[in-house]
User: What shape does this take?
Amino acid sequence: MLGKTYLTKQASLLLEFARTTSDSDLSAKLISKAADLKSQADPLPDRDQGPAAPDVSPGNLSGS
Assistant: This one.
């Protein structure tokens, strides 16, 4: 499953491309796809829940 961070970033990029194109049909399709990705990302938790790397101890996951 793709994470919320990934889906949100992809949606943001699609919106950026939609703003830069002069083709209104392409822009509408990009915006629609961005909305689809956003709706997939919304119900996911804020932090991606992938497995931790083997060299990361469980007590040191705070990111500091």
